[in-house]
Write a structure and sequence with these properties.
Helices cover 33% and strands 20% of the residues. α2 runs antiparallel to α4.
Length: 412
């Protein structure tokens, strides 16, 4: 009796990252080389993550539900729906780069199974809305890179996270930052081939681990203007963007890295809010203007600004930031999280009561007339999370998304 064929499979999760110094605009759209460096905070995968399973399918293997032609091509399922892997597209580019690395090691060691020549079945799912301004492409692409890197055992051959981040960048720019945990920079680089444009660790999660993030989901609908389209319109038409690239971002990167390393929340908060405001000003300076914020977003800004004003010389209580969408992310020191949550709930009541949130008195001097109490549903969901780690390798048998026949479990 012949022994069963080995199964080559891996499962990983990867986190969302939310930029505090935004990347907006590409100097090379095919390689995804940014017009400026950026900096982000990685959020906990316990609350927000993409989960991906990849299996290398030996060419002679066919599943009971797939035709022979289907079994010899790469296939991708996202949240249960099969997605086309377009030739020359971003996903295909990442797969080709990873295969190239694996093949280089197979050529040096004939005992290695030729996984680089096997088609892949990839299943991925997010536990949060896709394309709603919550960095789903960043976590999704970094999960794909981490999973196939694990499948190909690339780390055992000396491939670094920084090298993998440069591949992730080619799939989704901000995905390169989700390859690291904690506080992460993305160096724009200067080389035309992108070999010096990748992510790096500013500080690990353990360095400043009492920073919380409160996500206010204003809308979980797909964005009206996709980031890729929006940023290229901005590059082509905004004079303010050029000022931001040349004058603002380099100094802000320096200040933010120093603030993170020194755990200086005052500077971190002030620069985070300024950068968010300028990013959206650049969007408005685009022709035609791009509107990512809505009335609820602006009410959140007013609420945070009033909270910070009421604190006076003690420094800010919270920092807001908005990516390319209306959802707010508030960075808060853990000691102030109960107050911020209580205040948010006063003005943005929820359909369902949030657990473990006490009703707290507003700070003395807080002007309660600055904003009006909103109707339930203005903020549809509140997610409490914290700074988190980078991609995790999981036990495929317990948490994998593919069934024995290589198809997604929900389709098998």
């Amino acid at each position: 009796m012949s022994s069963p064929s080995p199964v080559y499979e891996a499962t990983c999760t990867a986190p969302v990252n939310i930029a505090v110094v935004k990347y907006w605009g590409k100097r090379d759209t095919s390689l995804i080389l940014p017009t400026n460096s950026s900096l982000s905070v990685t959020l906990s995968q316990d609350d927000l993550r993409s989960l991906t399973t990849a299996r290398a399918i030996p060419p002679t293997t066919t599943s009971s539900t797939s035709s022979s032609s289907e079994s010899n091509v790469d296939r991708l399922w996202l949240n249960g729906t099969e997605e086309e892997i377009k030739e020359g597209g971003r996903t295909a580019t990442c797969l080709a780069e990873l295969r190239k690395l694996r093949k280089s090691f197979e050529e040096k060691d004939s005992s290695l199974p030729p996984l680089s020549s096997y088609p892949l079945h990839i299943a991925s799912e997010n536990n949060f809305p896709t394309a709603a301004g919550l960095a789903s492409s960043a976590s999704g692409l970094s999960a794909l890179i981490a999973t196939i890197s694990s499948l190909y055992s690339l780390s055992s051959f000396g491939i670094s996270t920084s090298q993998l981040s440069r591949i992730a960048r080619q799939g989704s720019g901000s995905a390169c930052r989700s390859m690291f945990g904690g506080y992460v920079g993305w160096e724009m680089g200067s080389r035309s081939d992108g070999s010096d444009s990748g992510a790096y660790e500013v500080a690990p999660v353990e360095h400043w681990d009492d920073l919380d993030a409160i996500i206010l989901v204003v809308s979980d609908k797909k964005k009206g203007t996709a980031s890729t389209v929006g940023m290229q319109k901005t590059v082509a038409t905004s004079s303010l963007l050029q000022h931001r690239i040349k004058e603002v971002v380099p100094e802000r990167m320096r200040k933010m890295e120093k603030a993170i390393k020194g755990k200086d929340f005052r500077v971190f908060a002030e620069e985070t809010m300024r950068d968010s405001n300028q990013f959206h000003a650049v969007c408005l300076d685009t022709s035609p203007p791009i509107f990512y914020l809505n009335d609820t977003s602006r009410q959140i800004i007013q609420l945070v600004e009033e909270l910070n004003r009421s604190r006076g010389s003690e420094g800010p209580i919270a920092a807001y930031t908005f990516d390319a969408g209306p959802n707010a992310v508030l960075y808060v020191q853990r000691r102030d999280t109960p107050l911020v949550l209580s205040t948010v709930l006063k003005y943005f009541p929820q359909e369902e009561k949030l657990e473990d949130v006490e009703d707290m008195k507003l700070p003395e001097g807080f002007n309660e007339k600055v904003i009006m109490k909103q109707e339930k549903g203005a903020v549809s969901r509140i997610i409490r999370t914290k700074v988190g780690d980078g991609p995790r390798v999981l036990d495929t048998e317990k948490e994998g998304l593919l069934a024995e026949n290589g198809m997604p479990k929900n389709l098998a």
